[in-house]
Every structure is written in structure tokens, then in C-alpha cells.
Design a protein that fits this description.
Helix content: 25-40%
CATH architecture of the largest domain: 2-Layer Sandwich
Order of helices and strands: EEEEEHEEHHEEHEHEEEHHHHEHEH
Largest sheet: 5 strands, mixed
Low-confidence stretches: none
Structural class: alpha/beta
Distance between the termini: 24 Å
Number of strands: 15
CATH superfamily of the largest domain: ATPase, nucleotide binding domain
Number of helices: 11
Strand content: 25-35%
Shape: globular
């Protein structure tokens, strides 16, 4: 009934929780999916605050959408997660983790006590190691471990949002090829994340305050409607609101000003320190990317092709939800 080669990926957000049941293999397949509201106030910046409410929601959704799997993976999304590029002298396998902890402690003395740190090695020569390290507050990791403890849901591992997005991109959008470079911009409800992939490898991730709710708030003030009505109007393409593209672009400019600045800084950094020709494309994911005209707005702003993340390798019925499901899909993709 469960299927040994299936993993259920979960993305428990502040507003919505997304599920993706993925069959593993040389060509992974998305077999089932679901999107449900997260209980109000139960999750804040990645931290589970109401375990009972979240667990009830998870069990209900698993049953409703028939998402049975023995193995479950969760992706963590928080402004407090830190990802850094790793470059160090070549070491034996059992020497890498202590060396990573030591290097981090030089810049962040208390991090060993407060954060859980993992690393991924991309390339290894006789002299050098290259990869990334990810550090997440232990209280966030512990809140998920405690959530699933004795729950009957078999949590096998946790991932972070940036790595989950990278895996989903590499598997379902563009297989890693030399010379490929992309900015994955995840626009969530109150927070966004700017991630850089070069040759299929995640090398940089930055979080910034700002998401779909910032633009929705401007629409609320402009039309004197509720946040719920603004969100519904956005999802319908503002068919029932008399708003011009010029007015919407003005709201996007104000609501996403911090995100724009982070994207601009990241593009400049990559162009001047990593890739002479800069980033080739920008892909948007998350609920905050569904504003009409956002692709054209960002494309004109950064003079770079911008697309909503889509995949030709998923069922047709999920094609218009892929940009929402990316972190959950990526979480379910095993790397071992």
C-alpha cells in the first residue's frame, strides 16, 4: 500500500502546506499532491508553534489526498537559515565535519551550540574541496522532530528550502549542464528567497523580508477590500477588480522593493565575482509569483528573461501548481 520507493515531501508554510508524493528512480515521477491551509498562527518563520494543530492538519491531508508513504521528508523555510559556499583544503571524510564546524565558529562563535549544520561536497581534488554548508537553528529542527515523534508519520530527513528548490529545478525543469546559470526567486507570503544555481549547483541563498502579502496589502488599501478578497482577486488575475497594469506595476514596485534590491545585488555580485556573462535566466516560484505581469515587470527591471517555474515532466493537472509545489517536490527527491 505504501510503496517502498515513494517519498512524501512536505512544505509547511505560514499560510499554506504543500505535499508532493514522488516515486524515486532514475526519472522521478510526481504521483500525487495536495495543498491545504496551515492552521492560523501555528507556524512562524519556520518554527512550529502549535504542534497539535499542525499534526491534525497533516494527518487529515494525507488521508484526503491519499498521500500514503513510509518515508516522509520536510523542507524548512526560515529567514534564520544560513547557507554559505564551502572552500577548504582537501581532507579525509571523517575530518570534514569538524573542520566545517571550526570554520563557522571563527565567524559565529555560538553557532555550534545554537545551530544544526550540514554540508554538501560538489567537487573534490587532491588539494581542495568545494561545496556548501547550511546552518539552521536547532529550535526549528527540534520543533519538526518533536512534531513527528510518535505521530505515526515516518519522518526520515529534513531539508532546507533552497536545496529543495535546487533539486526540483535540476530534476523537473533543467538537468544540470555546464554553463547553465539561473536565479531561483521564491516569493512566499511574507518572506522571499533569492538562490543562485550555476551548473546545477546551489552556491548562494539570501532571504529577504517581502512577499505576496506586501502587494496584497497595497491592493487592500487601494480598493478597500479584505486581505482574503485581495488574495482571491490575485488568484483570478484581478478579473473582478478594475485595476490597470500600470497601477499593478506600481503596487509591485512598492511591495517588492526589498526583493528587487536583493535580486539586483545578487545579479551584480555574480556578474562581478563569479560569471562574467552573469545569470542567464530568472525563475519565479511561490504564491507571491502569481501576480499578472510580474514576469514582464521583473524582466524589464533586470534585463534578464524571467519565467514562472514550470515543468514538462509533471502531470498536466499539476502544471499550473508546479511553482507552488517546488519545495515539497524537491524535499521528496533523495540525494543518497
Amino acid at each position: 500500500m505504501f510503496g517502498e520507493n515513494k517519498v512524501l515531501g512536505m512544505d509547511i508554510g505560514t499560510r499554506l502546506t504543500k505535499f508532493a508524493l514522488v516515486k524515486q528512480g532514475t526519472k522521478p515521477e510526481l504521483k500525487a499532491w495536495g495543498i491545504v491551509p496551515t492552521p492560523l498562527g501555528s507556524v512562524s518563520d519556520g518554527l512550529i508553534r502549535d504542534k497539535e494543530a499542525v499534526l491534525d492538519m497533516l494527518k487529515s491531508a494525507i488521508s484526503e489526498y491519499k498521500l500514503m508513504a513510509k518515508k516522509v521528508a520536510v523542507t524548512l523555510h526560515s529567514s534564520t537559515i544560513m547557507l554559505r559556499e564551502l572552500n577548504m583544503t582537501a581532507l579525509k571524510d571523517d575530518e570534514i565535519e569538524p573542520a566545517v564546524q571550526f570554520e563557522l565558529a571563527q565567524s559565529f562563535p555560538d553557532m555550534v551550540q545554537t545551530h544544526s549544520t550540514a554540508f554538501k561536497i560538489y567537487t573534490r581534488t587532491s588539494e581542495l574541496l568545494n561545496g556548501i554548508t547550511t546552518s539552521c537553528p536547532k529550535k526549528i529542527v527540534d520543533s519538526y522532530v518533536e512534531l513527528f515523534d510518535n505521530s505515526g508519520i515516518g519522518l526520515k530527513y529534513v531539508d532546507v528550502n533552497a536545496n529543495s528548490l535546487a533539486k526540483a529545478y535540476n530534476c523537473f525543469i533543467q538537468s544540470p549542464v555546464p554553463g547553465d546559470s539561473v536565479l531561483l526567486v521564491d516569493l512566499s507570503y511574507t518572506m522571499s528567497q533569492v538562490n543562485v544555481l550555476v551548473d546545477g549547483k546551489l552556491i548562494l541563498s539570501r532571504s529577504v523580508s517581502g512577499g505576496g502579502s506586501f502587494v496584497d496589502s497595497l491592493i487592500v488599501n487601494r480598493f478597500e477590500i479584505t486581505m482574503e478578497e485581495a488574495e482571491t482577486a490575485r488568484q483570478s488575475g484581478y478579473k473582478n477588480l478594475s485595476i490597470s497594469q500600470e497601477e499593478l506595476d506600481s503596487c509591485l514596485r512598492l511591495g517588492y522593493s526589498a526583493v528587487e534590491e536583493q535580486i539586483r545585488q545578487t545579479l551584480d555580485y555574480i556578474r562581478y565575482s563569479k560569471l562574467q556573462d552573469g545569470i542567464k535566466t530568472i525563475r519565479l516560484s511561490g504564491g507571491g509569483s502569481s501576480f499578472p505581469g510580474l514576469e514582464a515587470y521583473f524582466s524589464g527591471m533586470f534585463r534578464t528573461p524571467v519565467y514562472i517555474a514550470q515543468s514538462d515532466s509533471t502531470p498536466l493537472e499539476v502544471s499550473d501548481k508546479f511553482f507552488l509545489l517546488m519545495p515539497a517536490i524537491g524535499a521528496a527527491l533523495r540525494e543518497d
